[in-house]
Amino acid sequence: MEPDIDKIEAYLSGALAGAERQAFEAEIAGDPALAEEVDAVRLAREAVEFSISSNLRAQFQEWQEAEATGTKTEEARVVTMAPRRNLRRVLAIAASVLLILAVGSFWYANEQFASDQLAMDYYENMPLDLHIRGNAEELPEAVAKIRDNNFAEADAYLRSVPADDPLYYNARYYLAHSLHRQGEYDASNDILNEVNEASNPNLREDASWLKVLNYLELEQTGNDEFQTLLEEMIADDGHTHHNDAVNLNDKLNSFWYNIAN
Amino acid sequence: MKVYTDQELVAAIKKGGSGRQEAIRFIYNKGDLRRKVVHFVRNNQGNDADGNDMFHEGIIVLDRNIREDKFRAESSIEGYLYSICRFLWQNQRRKKARVDLKEDATQMDQIETSTPELQLLSDEKKNLLHRALEQLGERCKRILELWQLSYSMEEIATEMDFSSAQMARKNKYRCQQSLLKFFKDQPQWKQWLS
């Protein structure tokens, strides 16, 4: 029998749901010819997606070139200056130098010490795999999905782990990471409140540090909980993030941080 | 230009057609977000061109994730796109670091079984997809693109000058079969499945 391409496409695009989807999956499992057709359609869809991406890239290139042309027109304007006396010229140059220095300092501070930039820098040095434990395969898969920005599927699994599961707190911790990566810092902190109940001290310490980074992203360094967490980490030289906390605290008290924030 | 809410952007991209194009243009024109991405890339060993590239690649991923229902509507599109761009850049840096490592002969032993081989495979796959699309021809390629972008058969008929939706359906089927045949004719074609 000729395979039903429309049904295969509906299955691959996610349009086939619930019982119908399960029934079709059972059909695929029992029919190698159908399974082969599903694989071929999957590859064909990937090829078409490749083409759609290429079209978008070409479109962006076109828009970018149009923008650049516009900029050049602006830049091409010639400003004619009236002759000035020497003293005024010297003062103007001095003012320009001061302005350049001020702008440069502000730029440097903003690039290196802006609150969200600090959070990003610290977050990138935070390993993600440390709390994948146990025999369950789903947790590493969910973490891989977070890495692939497939947050919907990762979150769906992580939220489904029941509270009596031994990996419940690990799942909540990774859910907090997923929300952090999605820019949902408040929601991430709400989840991290639960992880404080975990028996694993390393998990609790990583959760606290992630909370600190959420506050940093939110630019809420004056928040009481942020201050308390940071002070605790600084006071405890056995804390996993003791050195990070000391380093962050130095930056928060620096001249550059005050300029940038 | 029309100002979109996140829900409107998602709806427009899912619906396809010119609405999708306008929605993508709206996202593309989010100057603050683009500057934020460029800023991030520049601060992480990249330059402005890298930053712009990441912004573009991020929109491509966003577009696809919305169409494939992988975007969770509870997070904002801006936050989601920004996080995609950040992690795309990190992945690229990691990949580059591994290639640099490969070029360093003293480190060769440590990596010969890992990523470079996968990288080669990925390039080969791109080449295969490119050949598949080439043999398909422009018209067929366009029909399949429109179909994957959720155009109805009536809209495809209008866009491609077919006399009816029925004719559009027949052509879509023919083009799809041609693409499937191309892949099935490749030796060990299943190795290319993701």
Automatic annotation (TrEMBL), chain A:
SUPFAM superfamilies: TPR-like
Keywords: Membrane, Transmembrane, Transmembrane helix
InterPro entries noted in UniProt: TPR-like_helical_dom_sf (IPR011990)
Residue ranges of the TM segments: 90-109
Statement: the UniProt record of this protein carries the keyword Transmembrane: yes
Domain of life: Bacteria
UniProt xrefs under Gene3D superfamilies: Tetratricopeptide repeat domain
Official protein name in the record: Tetratricopeptide repeat protein
Organism: Flavilitoribacter nigricans (strain ATCC 23147 / DSM 23189 / NBRC 102662 / NCIMB 1420 / SS-2) (Lewinella nigricans)
